[in-house]
TrEMBL record:
Keywords: Hydrolase. The keyword Glycoprotein does not apply. Residues 1-20 are annotated as: Disordered. Residues 22-143 form the HotDog ACOT-type domain. This is HotDog ACOT-type domain-containing protein. Pfam families: 4HBT. SUPFAM superfamilies: Thioesterase/thiol ester dehydrase-isomerase.
Length: 143
């Protein structure tokens, strides 16, 4: 069998199609456990938000391209308000630009509920409106 006949050497000639379109959005919600408190006042470090951005970016790439993608960069990261243990946060990624292999996204962490220390032990309250805690823009590359 020659190399040209060997099916293991055949390379696809067409690129897989993407479902990525500007405006697509993925949103996660999660409770921030007290084990993540890093500073006084149960404050959680900013890296927690960045890790959450990675999670929503991964899901968005799976939905659009069938691949987890690889984070290439963050830009314009802004910590606008605190995230603390006992919060319920909502993390979103919105596709703002689609390149041949790159996907540019806007990210946002919103605190939608917070533990209520004055209410005692397990008291909490829904925040209306939610508090925007962290924003960023990032680029993910897919194969």
């Amino acid at each position: 069998m020659t190399e040209a006949q060997d099916p293991r050497t055949i390379r696809p000639t067409t690129r897989p199609t993407t479902k990525a379109t500007v405006g697509m959005r993925v949103t996660h919600r999660r409770y921030v456990p007290y084990s993540y408190a890093h500073y006084a006042g149960n404050l959680v470090d900013g890296a927690y938000s960045l890790a959450a951005f990675g999670d929503v970016a991964t899901e968005l790439c799976i939905v659009t391209d069938g691949d987890e993608g690889l984070f290439a960069s963050y830009s314009d990261v802004q910590f606008r308000s605190r995230v603390q243990a006992g919060d319920v946060i909502e993390i979103s990624a919105e596709l703002v630009r689609v390149g041949r292999r790159s996907r540019e996204m806007d990210f946002e962490v919103r605190v939608v509920a917070r533990g209520d220390e004055e209410g005692g032990g397990s008291a909490a309250r829904v925040l209306d409106p939610p508090v925007v805690a962290t924003t960023a823009r990032g680029v993910v590359v897919v194969p």
